[in-house]
Write a structure and sequence with these properties.
The structure is a single chain. The chain is mainly α. 79% of the residues lie in helices and 0% in strands. The protein contains eleven helices and no strands. It is globular and about 45 Å long.
């Protein structure tokens, strides 16, 4: 294997493992796509396709925890898909310089979200009540998170977890199951557009996807023995390092 192939495979394995253990794969996989020499837009699209199956698999595994498929859930899924498509379109129409410029801030912001995730989950649990019709403000917040997810994606799961508190999603496992369903909707809409527009680097994507699937399986085994706190610390350190590296590259 070439060095680039090895890099993508290792990043995919690492991303799959950390997603299974703690989340935050994009903070590892997206910089690996950039390091492989892909332009930012192609790297973003290819990364989205490579990690998208993880959301779907997680949603299917815990499907019994999903709420009843009523009008509120249909609206949330539709909003997520529409937001993901809008974010992907935004990525494709913006000049590349306007995508490169905020990259360090996006990576840094996603890292900070990852740091805050446990507190956000506690906050979400405190907000739980009986399900009802979602507030209009909650729909706008969900749409905003979905647009961000279609545009970049890192930290999407954390944003959606926070939004689901407003949707009254219930206890933590139900929140995570619904988060996975909505993240799947965002990913499917965004990646479908990327594929149709032909901006996915399939060779790199397949290598990373293979690694991510293997890493997800390994992470499922390791979750029984490895403390999630250790994995979180590694992901946070990687995100901070990538923020510094890309800030130096694009801002100085």
């Amino acid at each position: 294997m070439t060095t680039t192939t090895e890099l993508l495979l290792i990043a995919g394995i690492a991303g799959g493992m950390v997603n299974a253990l703690a989340g935050g794969a994009t903070l590892i996989t997206f910089p690996a796509m950039l390091a492989a020499g892909l332009p930012p837009v192609v790297a973003n699209a290819s990364n989205a396709v490579a990690i998208a199956p993880g959301h779907l698999i997680a949603a299917l595994v815990d499907r019994r925890q999903l709420p009843r498929f009523d009008s509120s859930l249909m609206l949330a899924v539709a909003m997520s898909a529409g937001g993901g498509l809008a974010g992907a379109l935004l990525l494709l129409v913006l000049p590349e310089r306007l995508i490169i410029l905020p990259l360090p801030a996006l990576i840094g912001g996603a890292t900070l979200l990852f740091v805050a995730a446990p507190r956000l989950q506690v906050w979400a649990l405190k907000r739980q009540t009986e399900r009802g019709s979602p507030h209009v403000g909650a729909l706008f917040a969900l749409a905003g998170a979905s647009i961000y997810g279609g545009f970049f994606g890192a930290g999407l799961g954390i944003l959606l977890t926070a939004m689901l508190a407003i949707f009254n999603a219930g206890e933590l496992r139900a929140i995570k199951a619904l988060k996975n369903l909505l993240a799947t909707s965002v990913s499917v809409a965004a990646t479908a557009l990327f594929i149709v527009r032909g901006i996915v680097a399939w060779q790199q994507t397949v290598v990373m996807l293979t690694g991510a699937l293997a890493g997800g399986y390994a992470g499922g085994l390791l979750i029984r023995t490895m403390p999630a706190g250790i994995v979180r610390s590694i992901v946070i350190a990687a995100g901070a390092l990538m923020t510094i590296i890309y800030a130096y590259r694009y801002w100085f």
